[in-house]
């Protein structure tokens, strides 16, 4: 974005967040937990993995509630 105030637009914030998440996931090929975790913390792998595990557990719970599973 050219100006940080553009991030106040939800569609811009969503696009930028998705780009950051994609970059984080791509940085850890074959390791989704670490990739998702790097969205939160690139510098500390332990913290990144902890975050990634929590987020993916929430995702699994949502799928279960919706009657879907992976």
Give the gist of this structure:
By secondary structure, the protein is mostly helical. The chain is built from 3 helices and no strands. The longest helix has 21 residues, at 45-65.
Rg (CA only): 14 Å
Question: What global shape is seen?
Answer: globular
Spell the H/E element sequence. Answer: HHH
Distance between the termini: 35 Å
> In percent, how helical is the residue content?
55-70%
Number of helices: 3
Structural class: mainly alpha
Uncertain spans, ≥5 residues at pLDDT below 50? none
Characterization of this structure:
With 70 residues, this protein is mainly α. The chain has helices at 10-26, 32-40, 45-65. The model has no long low-confidence stretch (mean pLDDT 95). 10% of the residues are buried. The protein has 3 helices and no strands. The longest helix is centred in the C-terminal third of the chain and has 21 residues, at 45-65.
């Amino acid at each position: 974005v050219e100006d940080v105030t553009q991030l106040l637009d939800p569609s811009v914030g969503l696009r930028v967040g998705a780009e950051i998440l994609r970059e984080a996931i791509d940085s850890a090929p074959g390791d989704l937990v670490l990739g998702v975790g790097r969205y939160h913390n690139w510098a500390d792998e332990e913290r990144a993995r902890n975050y990634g595990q929590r987020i993916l557990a929430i995702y699994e719970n949502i799928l279960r509630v919706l009657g879907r599973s992976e």
